[in-house]
Structures are given as C-alpha cells and as structure tokens.
Amino acid sequence: MDRPLKFGSESLGSRLILGSARYPNHDVLLQALRAGGTEMVTVAIRRVNLDDPTGENLVSLLRRENFRLLPNTAGCYTVRDAVITAELAREALGTDLIKLEIIADEDTLYPDAEKLLEASRILVDKGFQVLPYCIDDPVTCKKLEDLGCVAVMPLGSPIGSGMGILNPYNFSIIREKCQLPVILDAGVGTASDVALAMELGCDGVLLDTAVAHAKDPVLMAEAMRLACEAGRKAFLAGRIPRKYYAEASSPTGGKIRGGRKAG
Amino acid sequence: MKISLNGERRDLEGPVNLQELLTALRVPTGGGIAVLVNGEVARRAQWAETAIRAEDEIEIVRATVGG
Fold it and tell me: Where are the domains of chain A?
C-alpha cells in the first residue's frame, strides 16, 4: 500500500489531480473525474454571469461528490491580480490552498518566474498554502521551496500542448534537489506522459485538456489513473540502469554444444 | 447612483448594502461566491454592513471550471 500524497494540510489517496475545464458537459466531467479516481479538482475564479446568476453551480456539483477543490489564479498576468484572485478563492471556497499561476506570455502561457516568486512570498505570508505552477527549472523550484510553498508544479510543456515532458532530465534534478512534493502540471498528452512523470519521481500529476479533449474523456481518465498508478509503482520498485551494451538475461553457464554433424 | 459592476456601468437606486445588491441581482449567496469592493475582498460577514457608494467598483465572482 502506497503512502498518500501529502502537501500542506492535504492528504490524497490518488496522485492524479484533474482539471474541470473544457469538458463537453458536466455529466461527462463527473464521469471522467470518477473514472480518474481523483480526489482533488481544480477550479478557476471568474465573474458571475449577472444575466444568469443562478445558472451553473459547479462548486455544489463537485462538493456533492466529495471532491476537494483546488482553486487557481489562471489568467493572471500581475502579482496583484494573482493575490486578489487567491483571496477571492479563499473567501468563496473557504480554502487556503491556491494553485498559483502568473502567466508571462500569451503564446506559450509560460509562467513569469520573477512575479511567481514575489506572489508566492506574499501569499505564504498571508497564510495560503501555495502550489506554484512554474517552469521546469530546479533553481526556481528550490527558491519556491525556500519561500514556504507546499508543493511545486513544474510544467512538462506548454499548457494544453499535449507535448508531454520535454525535459525529463530537469524533472530528475528537481526531484533530487527539492524536498517538496513535485506535481507535474501542464503538457500531458496521453497516458504514457503520466507514467513517465511518475517514473521520474513526481509525487503527482495535474492535467486537464488531455482528458477533457480526448475522443472519449471517461476512457482517457481511466487510462490516466492506471498510468499514474503504474508509473508510481515502477518508481517505487526502482528501474534498472540504462546501459549501452546487452546483458544476457538467460544463464550464460550450462549451454550445450551442438557437436558435429556431417553434411 | 452609478457603480461599476463586473466591469459594466450600472445605475442603482440607493441607498443599498452589498447583501441587498446580491439579493436584487438574484446571486445565490449560499456559498462559492466572493465579492471585491474597490480592490478589497468584502468578507461574507460584512456584506450586510457594507454600504455601496457612488462610483464603487464591485466584482462578484464564483468558482467555475478551470484547469
């Protein structure tokens, strides 16, 4: 039995965290979340549609199913907007958890490391449990750890790109240098990306589009769950080292000699 | 009086407090909602005591789908 994924006040049996965006409808969303075995779901903070204020109530829907909520600051480009969004999320949802995103560039949606560090410092001071979405850079991850974040969430590749983990070596270094839980966030395209992340020693994976935009989101969510479990078990089991040359797996002693046969 | 509400100019018949405004707008206040008044989060417990003044900038938000 594996130990739970722990960060801050949270303890999760599932190491797969799923987003709630881009699904065809709420019914498919709920089915996929169940199939993924996830316990925590990300949500965004946005203006209420005042033309239909009683419309969608995602929070009730997710809470009815006992999912824990991880609000994000998606779409924020400034420290101030990110901090205010985190405070609104705390007020709306009664949680100190915040997935901190401060975007630097519209095309790549890469995080702005400088602003991320500043916002992390402010939010930690305000008592938030900060999970920063960051570049796959061991130095930044270490700085975020020193600031008191509860986990780091390095990207595998740009959000929604489905390009997987572009720099697995950096993930290995982050794993080695950073004591915090490492949760791959962004870039997952399919199940093998999740398995690789877990094999590299990530403590968890957060993904959204790869499931929500799959042809069959529910089936893909199940695949992600299995990949997460398989990758985790492989990491715990310890992979063999890579070598340039072959090493026979069958015994080398006791081999027969065919002898001579005429003709 | 005129205020800014979720980025749009609105005319309000005052005086009115934040709780009354949310009720008038039919915003469900059971949970999952937060309000920003002039850049400061208005705590739920303070809604009924928060008088809205002309030119206030108010943002009413909720948690919605996100990644």
Answer: 8-237
Which ipTM value was assigned to this complex? 0.94
Please provide the average confidence, as pLDDT, over all residues in chain A. 95
Place of tokens 């006992």: A66
Chain A interface residues facing chain B, Cβ-Cβ under 8 Å? 19-23, 29, 42-48, 50, 53-54, 56-60, 69, 71-72, 74, 84, 87-89, 91-94, 159-160, 208-209
Q: What percent of chain B has pLDDT over 70?
A: 100
CB pairs under 8 A between A and B: 107
For residue range A172-198, list pLDDT tens digits in order. 999 999 999 999 999 999 999 999 999
A58 near A43, Cβ under 8 Å? yes
Where does the pLDDT of residue A29 fall: very low under 50, low under 70, confident under 90, or very high at 90 and above?
A: very high
Q: How confident is the model at residue A260, as a pLDDT? A: 84
pLDDT in tens, A113-137: 999 999 999 999 999 999 999 999 9
| Domains in chain B: boundaries | 2-62
Q: Give me the residue label for tokens 């999740």.
A: A194
Which positions ≥6 away from A62 have C-beta within 8 Å? A20, A33, A41, A43, A69
The structural architecture, per CATH, of the domain B2-62 is: Roll (3.10)
In sequence order, the 6+-apart residues with CB closer than 8 A to the CB of A251 are none
Query: Could you identify the residue written with the tokens 């994976």?
Result: A205
- What is A8-237's CATH topology? TIM Barrel (3.20.20)
